[in-house]
Specification:
This protein is 36% helix and 21% strand. By secondary structure, it is an alpha/beta fold. InterPro entries: AB_hydrolase_fold, Dienelactn_hydro.
Length: 240
């Protein structure tokens, strides 16, 4: 489900942010790209939360992941229509318009575009709304590995069907997917040794902490960076 926490600390969107470039059509979507292309490189798809691909912090994360030898894309799965900030009343209608099911179908087209360029190793990470898209890709086996960061909409039944290495990074202060649910995910995955998994609940942080933080807040940056490192380590192990 989506809750008010999905709307907390909205970013100031900036279409010019990041060190990468924006292309108008990558698998049919406007896309932020970080890293130089090389078909031998593994690729990572970052799937945003409800505020979309113009948010500066996810783009900075894409740049950081690219520096570790990945080709990184952040497609605009929201078609230029992110959730309006500071207006919680619009959330139900916005979710109805932008269901993660459509994001999953679009993500398969992005994967197809990567494969047509010669990329064979592809991973995906999703934040909040985007985590549901990633878990669907992990269920269908369209990616080599996935990371779910403070997920929304992800269910126990989803976790039971995951086919690829999966990492779940949850927040201690989270009513969207509370620690009790994250622990259920861990129990299910622990009973499925054929699927490599890593589950972690970060103490003292709130839903959205990995991408919705002030860069001037040293403590918040450190907590986000810890999750970013866990994500990158997972992709280095299972996608590279």
């Amino acid at each position: 489900m989506a809750t008010s926490q999905c709307c907390d600390n909205p970013p100031t969107l900036n279409a010019a942010s990041g060190k990468g470039t924006v292309v108008d059509n990558f698998g049919g979507l406007k896309t932020y790209i970080a890293g130089s292309f090389d078909a031998s490189k593994p690729a990572i798809i970052l799937i945003s939360d409800i505020f979309g691909f113009d948010a500066p912090n996810p783009r900075a994360l894409a740049d950081k992941v690219a520096e570790s030898g990945f080709y990184v894309v952040i497609p605009d799965f929201l078609y230029g229509d992110p959730m309006p900030p500071n207006d919680l009343s619009q959330l139900p209608a916005w979710i109805q318009k932008h269901g993660p099911e459509k994001g999953y179908e679009d993500a398969k087209l992005v994967i197809q575009a990567l494969k047509e360029k010669g990329v064979s190793a592809i991973g995906a990470a999703g934040f909040c709304w985007g985590a549901k898209v990633v878990v669907e890709l992990a269920k269908s086996g369209d990616i080599k590995a996935g990371v779910l960061l403070h997920p929304a909409f992800v269910t126990v039944d989803d976790i039971k069907e995951v086919k690829v290495p999966i990492s779940v990074l949850g927040a201690e202060i989270d009513v969207t997917t509370p620690p009790e649910v994250i622990k259920q995910f861990d129990e299910i995955l622990s009973g499925r040794p054929e699927v490599q998994s890593f589950v972690k609940i970060f103490p003292g942080v709130k839903h959205g902490w990995t991408v919705r933080y002030e860069v001037t807040d040293k403590a918040a940056v450190e907590k986000a960076n810890e999750a970013h490192k866990d994500m990158l380590d997972w992709f280095t192990k299972y996608v590279k």
